[in-house]
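We emphasize that the prediction below concerns an isolated chain of 206 residues; any contacts that depend on oligomerization or on bound cofactors are therefore not represented. The input was used exactly as deposited, without trimming of termini.
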Amino acid sequence: MQIGGDLMRHYVDYLRRNYSLGSARIGVIGVLTLAALMTTTGCRKEEVSTTAEALRLILKYNKQGKSDKAIEIALERLRIDPTDVDVHATVALIYLEKAETDGIHRDELINEALRHVNRAFELAPDSLRELSPSVAAFERAGDISTTTRCDRYDRALQFIEREKAIESQYLNSEPRTSADKWDDVIRMDDGKRARIKQKMLNARCK
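Result of the prediction step, given as a token string:
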């Protein structure tokens, strides 16, 4: 399964910015696999004692279309380590995937997804690695919501402001030559903000 276009594009932007991937086209599964590899390597046993092993199993089951099993693995990992930021972010994506196709339980699934997004942010409030997908998750939640669309768009805007504040710190602390890249990143943030504000206008948000 793949998550919707806006969220996908945001993840690709994130990878390009942070891992020098150029114009590579990478799906969400590839993004999460990369997160697992960045955390640690060499885990082979069917267990969830580490972040990497948990993510490997989560991705395996999700790719097989067994999202409930993937969520079960994620929640088991979070029982072992409730502060596992990457697993919080990953299970949030899976809940959002399910919400896109499950109209009956959509609001419940979105709420679960955003609960994990908020927890990831609480655990790493100064991490662009977590802020970037948080923006995308709340924007996507707004896109598919049936009730609290405006609140979710507004939360996405709050995350963008936090993201921009951290990026500005990098901009001010680096030499001009390396700071140029942050100018481009901040311009992308302005584009995201304008897009979300337009969606709020279309939804007649106050």
